[in-house]
């Protein structure tokens, strides 16, 4: 009885008794959630427009961050290093389209998936060759990201918000809004959505696959850079950063591979839920470190009941 | 192998080049490097004409259209011989995108609307290749709504949830948004009620008359197609077996017998298969 009380009731009592701490937890969850959402968006865009599950998304984060830091180390000022890195990501997008995607048009999806694994391996090798394998520090100050912390005192308590995290959230939100606007209100965005619906028909109205693919992979590159900067500022820039892209996998399962809104909601939900679970259940009962697996279990449960994901696009079937 | 050599020498008797918008010269199409689907197909479409491409299932109508619009590549099909000329320019090496820019667009069999996009968004995707600005596109959108008033009513619905007729209209309207000179229309009657089929063909005729759009339409519904078309080609097993003015084809005994279902001696039975084969050889 007592254990049941401890598991089912007590955490909520704690939440109620220390609302400031709860807010702190929620905020931390929100920060990682926003990032998960951002990475998931990169996956969703590429999947929607080309039916490719882009295995290379994670390594693109590392590659973008490494390029940025590497350029800065070689004396390029930060304000120039960012557009230059974007340029590199653009060249990468064009290269992938030319060398990998175009020759494989019309091949089964799994072959394209394997090709992205090839891209991943190439980027790992190439990245290490150019930038070396050791950990680097993100150039947070040089980029003008504030590093202080803000204090709030709600309910007579105490909440600490790092400006770094605040910047991350603001940047991610702006990026997401820009993306949604682009997808819904520009002719190119409309073409991307159309391509997601019906490849053949998109081709037939003259939508050019190669143009769209370059754009989509470039967007994925921009997202990779943004995530790389933000996550690099928290955890340093190394090849281990690749792992956070895999944290986006449960988000995709939860949100559906094709749904932009699903990626956003799924990302936020997973970020917040895993933090809550870790603090109120994981640490007291399971010895902590539940964040590494919680999201996957959650996704597994969702998949059991809704195979298309919580927000997956309904397959329109007319009878 | 000899594709270029073949392409250089125009095969078909050059029907007044100035009047021809599309000419297909003896093309051969191979899928997956092994399956020979078209075995030398030639046809011409005059500017401002409606030409019907008729034949049974699997005769190669769709493949012919896709060869012209270059959608074959995505299906691992390939034009291995012959040439395709649009406005006198060789187009078989162009991408579908480049061809749409030149004014030739395909409406695919089975409608293929973008299911999750609204009808209006569907129509607007048709204007993807255009660079003449927002107001022009809006004006054409209005024009499409005039031709298809039903689409205006459904403009905000997701295309996937509209009826088959509305989807067909949407597909044709979407093609119109690219300001085409020529539309390759594949099986517009598929799965539609007879009344709707007539409606669609009426609109095709109107578009032809008022907007000057030339049509090459593949149809199984020989009856309706020959009613609206000016000229017809009949395909069988990857070849053209018969062609002629629509009026003449309608009166042709063989066509009546094989495609219109009215034989000179009433209904046919399986006994006549042999007879049919013999006749076919003669036709080819």
From TrEMBL, chain A:
**Topological category with respect to the lipid bilayer:** Multi-pass membrane protein
One Gene Ontology term, aspect cellular component: plasma membrane
Question: Which Pfam families does the annotation name?
Answer: BPD_transp_2 (PF02653)
Where it sits in the cell: the answer is: Cell membrane
What InterPro entries does this protein's entry cite? Answer: ABC_transp_permease, BCAA_transport_permease
Its chief place of residence is membrane
> Which spans are transmembrane here?
25-45, 52-72, 78-101, 110-131, 166-185, 206-231, 251-273, 285-305
One Gene Ontology term from the biological process aspect of the record? amino acid transport
Entry keyword set: Amino-acid transport, Cell membrane, Membrane, Transmembrane, Transmembrane helix, Transport
GO MF: transmembrane transporter activity
| Keyword Ion transport attributed | no
Q: Which family does it belong to?
A: Belongs to the binding-protein-dependent transport system permease family. LivHM subfamily.
Q: Which PANTHER family match?
A: ABC TRANSPORTER PERMEASE PROTEIN, BRANCHED-CHAIN AMINO ACID TRANSPORT SYSTEM PERMEASE PROTEIN LIVH
- The name of this protein is ABC transporter permease
UniProtKB/TrEMBL annotation, chain B:
Task: Please report the organism this UniProt entry assigns to the protein.
Answer: Pseudovibrio exalbescens
GO terms under biological process = L-amino acid transport
State what protein this is by name: ABC transporter ATP-binding protein
The record's SMART domains line, in alphabetical order, gives: AAA
Thylakoid as UniProt keyword: no
UniProt record similarity statement: Belongs to the ABC transporter superfamily.
Q: Which InterPro entries match?
A: AAA+_ATPase, ABC_transporter-like_ATP-bd, BCAA_Transport_ATP-bd_LivF, P-loop_NTPase
Q: Which UniProt keywords apply?
A: Amino-acid transport, ATP-binding, Nucleotide-binding, Transport
Annotated signal sequence is: none
Record-annotated ABC transporter domain positions: 22-262
Which molecular function terms from Gene Ontology are attached? ATP binding; ATP hydrolysis activity; branched-chain amino acid transmembrane transporter activity
Pfam families documented for this protein: ABC_tran
- Lineage, top-rank taxon, reads Bacteria
